[in-house]
Amino acid sequence: MVHSKRRTIGTIGIFVFLALLGLFMLLPVYLAVVMSVKPVQEFFIFPPKLYAMEPTLSNYKDMFSICSDLNVPFSRYVFNSVMVTVSVTGMQVIFSAMAGFCLAKVKFPGAKLLNSLVVISLLYQSSVTGIMQYIVMAKIGMINTFSALVFPYAASPLCLFLMRQSISQMPDSVIEAAKVDGAGLFRTCWQVVIPNQKPALMTVVIFAFQSAWNIQSGSFVFDESLKTLSTAVQQAAQAGIARAGVAMAAAVFMLIPPAVIFMLAQRQIIDTMAHSGIKE
Q: Whole-model pTM?
C-alpha cells in the first residue's frame, strides 16, 4: 500500500514537472502570438505586459499589404517557397535514405572514414562553408537561379546521420535473406529496408521541411521573382520598431506550416513505433 502510494506521488510529480517544462517551452510561441496582435504603442509600455490590452489584426494586414506592394505578387513568393521546400525535402529524404543504407549495411573500402566525416560535419554550421559554397556556385553558373535555392540544401549531414543510425539497428539477417532471394542493393534498400524506417523518415521530413521552409535567398539570389517567402517577409519587417508588430506577425505566419507538418509527422511516428517493429 505504501509502495503504491509512493509510486502515485512520483507519477504526479513527474507529470507536474513535465507540464511546467512544456509551458516554459511554449512561452516563446505565446509571446510571439501576443506581440503579433499588439498595436505599436503597446511595445513602449514598461514594464512590458504578457498580454495585449487592445488586440488588433492590423499587423497581419500590414504584412500582407507590404508584401503585396513589392515588385512581384505575394503569390509568387509563396510559390517559390513551396517549390523549394518540396524539392529540398524530397531530395533530402531520398539521398539520406540511400546514403544511410550504404553507410550502415554495405561494406566497402573507406566506409569507416566516410562515417567519421559525417559525424565531424555535424560540428560545422552552414556559415562556415558559405564563402567556398558561393565560389563553387559562381563557377558553375548557379548564382541568381532557382537551382541555387535547392541543390546546396539537397543533402544534410544531420538527416544522413539519423538514417544511418536507424538503419544500423536493423538485423543483418533481413539483408541476407533479401540477398538469398536475389534482390540487389537498390531493391533491398527501397523494398526491404526503407519501408521499415518510417519513424526515421518522418523525423527527416520534419527537419528537412523546417530548414527548407526558412531558407533565405538573399545570399545567392538577387532577382525578386526568385526570392522565397521568408526573404520577402524579412525584407518587409526590416524597418525598426515601427514594424516590430509586423515582424512578429511574420514570425507567427512562418511558424504555421512547420508546426502543421510536425504534428502530422509526429502522429505517424507514434503510430509506427507502437504498431511495428523488427525482431531477430
A: 0.76
Chain segment 9-50, per-residue pLDDT in tens = 778 888 888 888 888 888 888 888 887 788 777 777 777 777
Main-chain dihedrals φ then ψ at residue 125, nearest 5 degrees: -85, 165
52, 37 Cβ separation under 8 angstroms: yes
Taking only the tens place, the pLDDT of each residue in 83-142 is: 888 899 899 999 988 888 888 888 888 888 888 888 888 877 767 777 787 888 888 888
Tell the residue number behind the cell numbers 520598431, with chain if given: 241
**For all residues of the chain together, what is the average pLDDT?**
78
HSE-CB at 74 with a 13 A cutoff on CA atoms is 11
Collect contacts of 34-41 with beta carbons under 8 A, ≥24 apart. Answer: 35/244, 35/245, 35/248, 36/60, 36/245, 36/248, 36/249, 36/251, 36/252, 38/245, 38/248, 39/245, 40/241, 40/242, 40/244, 40/245
CA distances from 43 to 23, 40, 51, 244, 246 (A): 23, 6, 11, 8, 12
Asked if 225 contacts 72 with a C-beta cutoff of 8 angstroms, the reply is yes
- The set of cell numbers assigned to 38 is 499588439
Between CA 220 and CA 230, with CA 225 as vertex, the angle to 5 degrees is 65
3-state percent breakdown (helix, strand, coil) of the chain, nearest 5:
75, 0, 25
Position of cell 520534419?
A: 206
Q: What is the structure's pLDDT at 269?
A: 64
